[in-house]
Amino acid sequence: MKRINPFVFNKRVKAVIVSYKISEDFERLLSDLKIDIIKTLPIEEIDEPVKDHPDMAVHPIDYNKFVVYNKHRNYYGRKLKEYGVTIIPSSNELNKFYPNDIALNVSRTNDYYFYKENSIDLSIENYLKKISKSVLVKQGYSKCSSLIIDKDTVITSDKGLYKAYLNNGIKCYLIPFGDILLPGYDTGFIGGCGGMISDDEILFYGNLERYKYSKQLVEILKSENIKYYYPRDCEFVDLGSIIGIRGGIDD
Description:
Elements: E1 15-18, H1 24-32, E2 36-39, H2 54-57, E3 58-60, E4 65-68, H3 73-81, E5 86-89, E6 107-108, E7 112-115, H4 122-131, E8 133-136, E9 146-150, E10 153-156, H5 159-167, E11 171-174, E12 194-196, E13 201-204, H6 214-223, E14 227-229, E15 243-245
Parallel strand pairs: 1-2, 4-5, 7-8, 10-11, 13-14
Antiparallel strand pairs: 1-15, 3-4, 6-7, 9-10, 12-13
């Protein structure tokens, strides 16, 4: 099995898995981009503010194998089949008591995966330990906290993750924490605000212009030659990482 970072792509994705709470303006944006939408199902066992988040329910092993929350296996099996993606049911049961909700929330680079000790789903670990090196971090929501913009380039507001990335040779940008809408919590995480949809395009759920640290974020994206898209009708919001679907392509 080849090492890849399944959160980045060398061409425009065919579809994305996104929160079922997305705005109408965001749906129109995806239509304009000619990207299909797969909405999450609510994970009834976890906390209300994050039960819609894709990165709590789905983890791509590579472009054609996704681990999905076991109680949603039939739904994602049907939705992903047309894109040539095989689903693998998760092993761990989820509940609202941290860290029992974060089993699928694992950050990735080309050669490493980052997770909180004893909290990774066994189905994910069984695959990743064969192709990547594990890095233990204190931040349980490692994917929520990481906006992955290239196979070995990440943006985060978490200082512990920032150090872990740098210590493993990963290019990482640190931006200020906070000012991200996540109803029910004080703030959301930068990784849950969007996701890459091609090698040089990123998509956000909310209006980047309403983010306090938009200038810093835009400067990073421009320095990496990444174009950015966002709807204008809502706040800059964390609805869980946008997960792109290439369509069963394994390169």
